[in-house]
Amino acid sequence: MGNESINWDKLGFDYIKTDKRYLAHWHDGEWDKGTLTEDNQLHISEGSTALHYGQQCFEGLKAYRAKDGSINLFRPDQNAARMQRSCSRLLMPHVPTEQFIEACKQVVRANERFIPPYGTGGALYLRPFVIGVGDNIGVRTAPEFIFSVFCIPVGPYFKGGMKPHNFVISSYDRAAPQGTGAAKVGGNYAASMMPGSEARKYGFADAIYLDPLTHSKIEEVGSANFFGITHDDQFITPKSPSVLPGITRLSLIELAESRLGLKVIEGDVFIDKLDQFKEAGACGTAAVISPIGGISYKDKMHVFHSETEVGPVTQRLYQELTGIQFGEIEGPAGWIVKV
Ligand SMILES: Cc1ncc(COP(=O)(O)O)c(C=O)c1O
User: What is the pTM of this model?
Assistant: First the structure.
């Protein structure tokens, strides 16, 4: 069945109510097997820890309509594992990897008519989440939990081709040095709303966060990870306990080395040493690979390759990654899971 009501070329990143979502409950020490439901409203206790104390976490991954017509999930086992780490950090029960992937597949199948056709550049974005629910008032772990997965069709991040964006260094932190930065939990995103909105008010694409302990090293680019390509072709990406370990970042680390022959370094990216890079970019499920034109720091703009043109290494990484996701190029073993 097609979907005549969606203009695939106009899709952005906006909520659209799709047909079905997966819903499972945890009580008495285990998850039930979950069901698909048409209802997109949750009815939860007013005392839910998710509402008061931020006891919740989420994931983001995409299903792609591949060149041969099949449907690809990109490394969903990695999203399952990251959600388990987020759950551990906030004292929530793990969703087993098998149940996580099965829930994603069920949601994709039940909403197949919302998957953007191959060639449009769009994908079906999946949003799994776990929230603490049930009657409660004290700061303690919830008596019950919900695991749900919903989906929305999203357009390509860049309409009309890949373009560099400018970013600004924020004076705010999104996470604390030994806090929850490495977990995909709502609190980090709540903390990033004001800096992000200030950055956009001044015409930047988003805020870049420095390490919260010394404010001397780049950590993250809005809701994406940073990478830079040095003049001698090293791929460098920050390593820190307060950075979210992105699955796109993890994948680029492997592709940069195995397919582009770059030396990969996970380490410090000092804000006063940006001139070591000939190219820089942001990477993530939503951002895919977004070239960074320039970074504004203390009212000075540092431009990398160009503010208008994409650098050649960034372009190659983009082609390799999206080629694998859309089934045009063979990926490393286990990266693509067919729905
Ligand atoms: C803060 C933050 N950093 C990095 C990423 C990139 O992670 P991934 O590549 O798994 O989407 C995201 C997006 O999910 C994010 O929200």
Answer: 0.95
